[in-house]
């Protein structure tokens, strides 16, 4: 196992309450990330340094690009579509008192795998659902506490998933939008934090952010820990590869719940040359 000495940079110095969900928008050449509890969608163009911030009307758990332009939003009360002209409509509206959206990912077929959780993080209060471009919804997992990182192997035959309180990165067999044979890939040991968001690289390795662990780890497809990137903040939330050649690892962080947050808590970090990512599909809707 190697602790990486590659220096991190601060892509965006911010004080996001719950920075999350970094996503590389290849068509626009920008990174999209969010502040869940701040109800904000951020964009960052590393080529120009241009940034935008948009406020949503409710807590936003994830935002992904759409194939025809615009964004799909995993919101507190369901999944909505934002068009390039800024018009909004619900694709799936299902308010549940005490529940909000959390992390989401897009599969190679263009379907959105969207997670939810209760604000009190009660066991079994969350779900993971598959949502098609037409708005068809299938609840895939209905006994989740904190639905988090989701990603697929380079050949599309495996799906990785995190329910944070389990401390596990789980792996499923994946075939035509169906998952089976759930088993653990790796478990985070006591004292090292909780697994949060994840991304899969071109070698099939799984990178996972550690909430209360102050680091990002990389696990091999066999489940062995082989790299660690330490960060100067405790609440590391998610990571993704971006940039024109997908070699820059972007990392979101949070400051929520910290009595005396370190100065960079809530900022967006980047580690140039950390690895090589996979192109991420856009939502088909």
Structure description:
This protein is mainly β and 285 residues long. The protein is 0% helix and 53% strand. The chain contains no helices and 25 strands. It has strands at residues 2-3, 9-12, 19-25, 30-35, 40-44, 51-55, 60-65, 71-75, 78-82, 88-93, 99-106, 112-118, 126-131, 137-144, 147-152, 158-163, 168-175, 178-187, 194-200, 206-211, 215-219, 225-230, 236-242, 248-253, 268-271. The protein has a five-stranded mixed β-sheet, with no helix packed on it. Strands 2-25-24-23 form a four-stranded antiparallel β-sheet, with no helix packed on it. Strands 3-4-5-6 form a four-stranded antiparallel β-sheet, with no helix packed on it. A hairpin with a 4-residue loop joins strand 3 (19-25) and strand 4 (30-35). The model has no long low-confidence stretch (mean pLDDT 96).
